[in-house]
Structure formats: structure tokens, C-alpha cells
Amino acid sequence: MTALTLSTSSAATLRADAVVVGVAKGAKGPVVAAGAEAVDKAFGGKLAAVLETLGATGAEGEVTKLPAASGLKAPVVLAVGLGDVPAKDDGYDAETLRRAAGAASRALSGSKKGAFALPIEDVAAAAAVAEGALLGAYTYDKSNGNGSAKNTKSAKNAADADKKNNGPLAEVALVGGKPRDKAYKAAAERATALVEEINRARDLINTPANLLNPADFAAEAVAAAKEHGLKTEVLDEKALKKGGYGGILGVGQGSEAPPRLVRIAYTHPKAEKTLALVGKGITYDSGGISLKPAGHNETMKCDMSGAAAVFATVVAAARLGLRVNLTGWLALAENMPSGSATRPGDVLSMYGGKTVEVLNTDAEGRLVLADAITRAGEEKPDAIVDVATLTGAMVLALGNRTFGIMTNDEAFRTSLHEIAEEAGEQSWPMPLPAHLRKGIDSPVADLANMGERMGGGLVAGIFLKEFVADGITWGHLDIAGPAFNEGGPFGYTPKGGTGAAVRTLVRLAERAADGDLG
Predict the structure, then answer these.
(1) pLDDT of 417-439, one tens digit each?
(2) Alpha helices in 269-425 (DSSP H)
(3) DSSP per residue over 225-269, as a string?
(4) Is residue 99 within a helix (H) or strand (E), and if so which, with residue range?
(5) Which helix (H) or strand (E) holds 157?
(6) How many CB atoms are located within 10 Å of the residue 479 CB?
(7) How many percent of the chain have pLDDT more than 90?
(8) Cβ–Cβ under 8 Å, residues 47 and 89
(9) Alpha-carbon Rg of the chain, whole angstroms?
């Protein structure tokens, strides 16, 4: 993990491999942003002109490196684009700063120290720069493996290959940070804990499926719980059968790696609110008997991103000492075809007694979530939020960077949307149209796991709503789009697992700690 320090030193005198400055897109060319005054002075006030000569425009995410002028301790200046110059009296918004800092961190991969002299007008701006810089510094350690102890040869090969790549930026020094100010120190500590847990989720998502099956994932949760004083309960296949968890068992029965349901809980003695988070944890999704075609299954190790987000959030809440009770439910299974796999047309008896006709075994996420949502509801939390890479339909609707929000309470849907935006994650509220409910009627069971094709993401939400106990506020985040980035990295977002929804869920927990659930 990249180290974060707060520095009162001038950007000109701080020793680092590079000093990072912001440059905005002005009407007549690039404009040097606040925070870079000392660096601009070293260039005789002509830093903007030099950058323009090098082709810099100040466009968001643009990175330009140049040799430092005499008078600067750092040998390199890295200018990162902030986009349009903000209106007078308006500063740069938090997400702009996050993305710029992330782009700079990625550009400094392999360096020991970067001095970030971006516009930091207050604690909120410092927090945004810190988050972005730490998030952008992430790289997946291929030798880490998360379960690779059982495959040391693969781990060694991966480690040898990884030696050819640069590691992450080792240290971020925040110029303009105030190390003796309690608010700045708290912001830095929060950013560090938050990003370390997001990176925990990213590591799990990026781990190859042969190195992270349901039992491996459960072991990771148990180990983290011991480290951070959390309570865990792991239901193996025998306990799941005894308890009647037909959804989780039905999805996992085709695999040689049996399913698990993990309960991981953080409690605070002064908590007034209780939240339950439920994560879809399909450690590999082949589609089962309804097999995915080639081109659609190569990245399906990421189908446990929801469970990774829930796991990371609970640990983050514990590390931050939030005054809230937070229980995470990780519904873990591997969806594989075999002679023992669930067939299309089979009927499953779910936890709680409902029966479901399985029309498509590739609509498996809603089955494991249904069991976990029902179980979570028995503890009477103030709200349940499930998180899942649930439907391709949501990706078609909202693209690769935005997750959908569905709830059984309009005010809660609005609140979740506001919280996501506040945390810097793109989301969009989606409806649960009543007329789509008829489509999941079944002649042989209480309901079917498929309905109308059009609006498939909404149909999945309607299915899950059937398993929410009366009187409990519920939200559903479909993160199928942003959970795994198959394209190139951008801003603070790496290629591969992104840790989507962790920031939103942590912010939700913080609001709950303040007594506000929307």
C-alpha cells in the first residue's frame, strides 16, 4: 500500500521524484492551478507557456512530464489536467481532484515519492486528492494470489513475470496538508483505511478463479475478522443443506468447490442503527447448464465483486470505528455445468420456504442473493442493501461506469443516489415497474428466476424484492458495469477489478452512524 504523508513544505523545496501540479483548460490556453505557485515561480512565471509548447491543454486527465527548473528539489514536474477553469469563487469539485490525482499516481508508477501540489483549499479537497492518489497507485500483485498457497508453481511464475513490471508509487506527499491539524489528520487516516479496503476488494476480484473458490474467499473473511475484531460465521455445504438454503446450494451443486454463506459482523456499543449488506459472490460464473458463449466467460472471476465490496466495507467500518452495527452476508458459490448441476426447469426450495423455477441457470446471482436477503431480514436491520454484478441488461442501460439503484422506498433510492454521488461513484436511480412482476409467475413454483427480456435488470430487482421481509427498507445496487474495467485505466480506475460500490457503502454506513438513512 502506498504511504500517505501530509507536508507543510513548499512544493519547490520538498524532495521527491516528481512534483505534481494541476493545469486547467483556459479560454486562451492552459492555466496553472492553485498549489503550484512555487513551481511556476521557478519557471519564471512561464510554466503555462512551457506546457502549452509541449502540447498540454489542461484537458481532464491529460498528463505532461517535463524536466524541473533550477530551484526545484524534484527533478521532474508532472502536470495533470483538471479540465475547464472553474467559475470565479468556485473551486474544483472533489471528483475532479480525485481523478487528477489518480492519473498522476498512475503516471508515477515505479517512483519512490511524489509531491502532490494540487489545489487544496480545505479538508474536503485534501481528502479527495489523498483518495485519488492512493486509488490511482494500485497495482495487482500477481504473486499475492489470495489462495495461491495451494498452487506455489503458479505463484512463482506470476511473481517472475511481475518483476518485469513497475510497482506502485511508494509515497504520496500532500503539499498543503496540515499534519498537526486534527481534521486533516483524520481525513488522511480515513483515506488510507478506505483505499486499503477498496484495494482488498480489487485484489480479490483480480485473483484467478482457480485460486479463489468459495472456501478460499470464506477463509479470507475469517482471517480479516480475526485481525480487526469482527465476528464471523461460515456455513459450509452441510450447514447450508441443514438450514434449507436451496438457492445457494442449487447454484453451487454443479461445482467440485462447494458453496459457502459467510456472516461477518461489526458492532459498536453506542450504535443506534443497524445495516445489513448482502453481496453476490459467484467466484466463477460459467453460466451453468445455460452455458455462456466464448467471449462472455473470460472475465467471470469478477462475478464476486458484490461480495468483495461488502467484505471490504465491513472491515473499513471497523477500522474507522463507525458508530453503527454493520453485518455483511457473503453468498459464495461457483456456477459450473456438470452431471450434478441444476438444470433449466428445476425447482429450488429457497431459504424461508419460497420455491423458484430455474428457467435459466445463468440467472444465478439472484438465487444466492435471495437466500442471503431472507436470512439477513431475520435479524430485523434498519435497512438491507444488496450489491451484485447482476445483469448484462444494466450494462446495456447505463454503460460501463454507472451502477443502477433500485429500492422498495423512493426516499431511500434518492438517498442512495445522493450518497453515491457524494462518494464520487456514478449511479442512476431505476424503477421497479409493477407490470413486470407478472412475468416471473411460474406454473410449477412460487416464481421463476426469469421474466420479460426487455428491462431484464429491473426484472432481477423485482425478483429480489420478493425476498425482502415486510417493513424493512431495502436497496439493490447492480454494479455489473463498473465492477470490472476491461478497457485501459483512467483517472484513479485501474484495469480489472475496481472496488465499485465500496465508497458508496462506507458513506452509507457513516450516514447511518449519524442517524441518517434517508
Answers:
(1) 999 999 999 999 999 999 999 99
(2) 305-320, 365-377, 392-398, 410-423
(3) HHHHT-EEEEE-HHHHHHHT-HHHHHHHTTSSS--EEEEEEE--T
(4) helix 94-107
(5) helix 152-162
(6) 26
(7) 92
(8) no
(9) 24
Asked whether 426 and 401 are in contact (CB, 8 A), the reply is yes
pLDDT digits (tens, 9 = 90+) for 269-328: 999 999 999 999 999 999 999 999 998 899 999 999 999 999 999 999 999 999 999 999
Instruction: Tell me the helix, strand and coil percentages in the chain, rounded to 5.
Output: 40, 20, 40
Amino acid at 379: E
Tell me, what DSSP letter sits at residue 68? P
Q: 81 by DSSP, 3-state: which?
A: strand
Residue 280's beta-bridge partner residues?
331
Q: Which helix (H) or strand (E) holds 133?
A: helix 123-136
Q: What number of CA atoms fall less than 13 Å from residue 403's CA on the CB side?
A: 34
More confident residue, 119 or 155: 119
Catalytically active residues, by annotation? 292, 366
d(CA 118, CA 100): 9
Inter-residue contact 98 to 80 (CB < 8 Å): no
* Closest CA relative to residue 386, chosen from 468, 274, 493, 265: 468
Rounded distance between C-alpha atoms, residue 314 and residue 328, angstroms: 6
Q: Going by DSSP bridges, is the β-strand pair 355-357/447-448 parallel, antiparallel, or unpaired?
A: parallel
Q: For residue 482, what is its C-alpha cell? A: 463498473
Q: Which three cell numbers stand for residue 300?
A: 467471470
Q: Are 177 and 184 in contact (CB under 8 A)?
A: yes
- Between the two ends of the chain, the Cα-to-Cα distance in Å is 34
What kind and span of H or E run contains 224?
A: helix 214-228
Residues 6 or more apart in contact with residue 79 via CB below 8 angstroms: 20, 21, 22, 23, 30, 47, 51, 56, 63, 64, 65, 66
Predicted confidence (pLDDT) per residue in 344-391, tens digit: 999 999 999 999 999 999 999 999 999 999 999 999 999 999 999 999
DSSP state, residue 96: H
In angstroms, the CA 225 to CA 311 distance is 10
pLDDT digits (tens, 9 = 90+) for 45-61: 999 999 999 999 999 99
Closest CA to 10 of 106, 74, 105: 74
CA distance 405 to 387: 10
- Contact indicator for 395, 456 with CB cutoff of 8 Å: no
The pLDDT score that the predictor gives to residue 159 is 43
- Residue in this structure with the C-alpha cell 478460499, named with its chain if needed: 216
- On whether the CB atoms of residues 306 and 393 are closer than 8 A, the answer is no
